[in-house]
Inverse folding.
């Protein structure tokens, strides 16, 4: 009952947010006091690199937690670390979420300053000050003229021009639009009363970010900048400016596996994983133990037992009852279709086949309504209702609007359904996806996958990747395929899946998933657990070493998990034995 009240009450959600920020910040004062001499020495050591940790949004507790940890680890590795925080100057930001942290009317009229900014800034500022590192603030780098210019541009630009607005080659409008869509949790802002005022606030915030970062890099020299997400406001604009100044950028996000994170060079992983060279993984060492580890993990994802990002609650696998409930005849050819959350990471991709995910879904349904020989099973992403920011534009509503009555061969499984996506797709001849990471898993099950959007499995040599709409529908004309992927492609899919889930998802030992009921109730994703600074020194945590080496030296953010397998360790032991006994 209390949980339901919390979900329905904005005030209680804001209270829970303030409690999170007040009581769950990393306890750096306690940890440093245990090794004061080591920390003093690190602060005064010779500097080998200058690193900017551009946290900016102190209210994003997962960001402050990991980025303060990185600040400590990098300082212990002879880096001079600078911190950047917004000190209540941005008129909109990532921390603003409709009905979760602020109301639409309040953001439109007052910005986040009334409800969010004080707690956001105060507690994160105290956390970083405990480290005695240089903390910079947005207001340091914004002049009166900057404030006036941002207000002028955001207030005078035609509404239709905002999304594509570019300033000095920087995609300011794209990130402003992405930020506003994230606030609304929709792929469009149609029929939203305050949408224009809020979009203009995001544009103004985007401009202020550009001006602040431009002024900052003129006064400071940085070898690399690290910050979460890499899109939205302000993170997307920070990246735009730094890249224009040839400063290395590192972005990160929490990964799916427990205690793991994805780091990427130059841009958000939403983009870099699409373009990652296949040479990074296609020739990796392989063995029976590695393959078993992968398959065991992929099977665990059916229940989410090894993950901390998981959207299926008590999934159902009773296929006989599911068949009866949905009235699907699995003896006839079935084609799966997996959607994404419409607003999530809505970026421009030049190689997209369709104008949008909605366009793809509508055109695909129109096609299958003329193919009664096939059954189309549309599985709506459970994150629409179970994600951190539940969608306010469900794809099911879009489908019903376009098709008041669906043909008998089209089946829509809503986001609220606890029917396992995996058990449904296992019954399909093939699966069509847009941008979901499920393509990585489905190909490892041997299921043929057609990619219509920008999924990470695309261009890895294991999926069908049409370049245009004609190619897409020609592929559909060939359905059903009536056979699984061949063995060569399946083994290639295994390698990429292992690379994706075990090598690109880097474990950090000191970050732990929350198991306490109160913590979950307050919305805490993870905590840092440490007793002293020695635990962050080089050699103490392989994953943290990989991350720090990537930030400092530009090395690949690849955690070679395969080296921990019995297959590989045996070879290493032999090499060590020969080396140790050599004359």
């Amino acid at each position: 009952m209390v949980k339901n009240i919390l979900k329905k009450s904005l005030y209680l959600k804001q209270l829970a947010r303030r409690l999170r920020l007040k009581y769950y910040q990393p306890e750096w004062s306690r940890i440093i006091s245990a090794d004061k001499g080591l920390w003093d020495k690190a602060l005064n050591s010779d500097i080998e690199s200058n690193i900017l940790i551009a946290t900016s949004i102190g209210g994003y507790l997962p960001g402050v937690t990991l980025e303060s940890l990185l600040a400590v680890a990098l300082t212990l590795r002879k880096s001079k670390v600078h911190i950047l925080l917004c000190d209540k100057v941005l008129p909109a930001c990532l921390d603003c979420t409709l009905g979760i942290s602020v109301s639409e009317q309040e953001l439109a009229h007052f910005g986040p300053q009334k409800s969010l900014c004080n707690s956001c800034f105060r507690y994160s500022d105290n956390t970083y000050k405990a480290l005695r590192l240089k903390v910079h603030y947005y207001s340091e780098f914004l002049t009166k003229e900057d404030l006036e210019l941002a207000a002028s541009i955001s207030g005078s630009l035609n509404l239709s021009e905002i999304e594509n607005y570019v300033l000095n080659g920087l995609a300011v409008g794209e990130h402003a639009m992405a930020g506003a869509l994230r606030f609304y949790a929709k792929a469009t802002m149609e029929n939203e009363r305050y949408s224009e005022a809020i979009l203009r606030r995001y544009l103004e915030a985007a401009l202020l970010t550009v001006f602040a970062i431009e002024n900052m890099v003129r006064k400071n020299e940085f070898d690399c900048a690290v910050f979460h997400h890499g899109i939205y406001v302000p993170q997307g604009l920070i990246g735009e400016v730094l890249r224009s100044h040839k400063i290395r950028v590192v972005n990160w996000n929490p990964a799916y596996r427990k205690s793991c994170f994805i780091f990427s060079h130059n841009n958000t992983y939403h983009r870099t994983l699409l373009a990652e060279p296949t040479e990074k993984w296609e020739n990796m060492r392989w063995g029976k133990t590695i393959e078993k580890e992968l398959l065991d993990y992929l099977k665990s994802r059916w229940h989410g037992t090894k993950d901390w990002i998981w959207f299926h609650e008590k999934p159902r696998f009773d296929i006989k009852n599911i068949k009866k409930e949905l009235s699907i005849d699995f003896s006839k050819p079935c084609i799966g279709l997996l959607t994404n959350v419409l607003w999530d990471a809505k970026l421009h991709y030049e190689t997209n086949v369709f104008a949008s995910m909605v366009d793809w879904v509508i055109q695909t349904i129109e096609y299958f309504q003329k193919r009664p020989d096939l059954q189309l099973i549309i599985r709506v992403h459970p994150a629409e209702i179970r994600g951190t920011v539940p969608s306010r534009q469900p794809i099911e509503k879009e489908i019903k609007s376009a098709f008041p009555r669906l043909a008998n061969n089209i089946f829509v499984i809503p986001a609220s359904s606890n029917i396992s996506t995996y058990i449904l797709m296992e019954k399909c001849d093939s699966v069509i996806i847009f941008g979901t990471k499920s393509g990585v898993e489905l190909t490892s099950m041997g299921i043929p996958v057609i990619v219509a959007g920008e999924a990470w499995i695309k261009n890895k040599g294991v999926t069908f990747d049409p370049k245009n709409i004609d190619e897409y529908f020609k592929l559909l004309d060939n359905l059903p395929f009536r056979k699984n992927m061949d063995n060569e492609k399946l083994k290639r899919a295994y390698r990429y899946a292992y690379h994706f889930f075990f090598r690109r998802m880097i474990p950090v030992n000191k970050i732990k998933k929350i198991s306490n009921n109160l913590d979950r109730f307050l919305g805490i994703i993870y905590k840092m657990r440490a007793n002293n600074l020695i635990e962050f020194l080089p050699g103490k945590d392989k994953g943290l070493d990989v991350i720090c080496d990537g930030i400092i030296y530009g090395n690949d953010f690849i955690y070679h998990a395969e080296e921990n397998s019995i297959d590989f360790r045996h070879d290493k032991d032999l090499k060590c034995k020969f080396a140790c006994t050599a004359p």
About this structure: The first strand starts at residue 49 and ends at 56. The chain has two domains: 2-254+507-556, 279-503. The two ends are 74 Å apart (CA to CA).
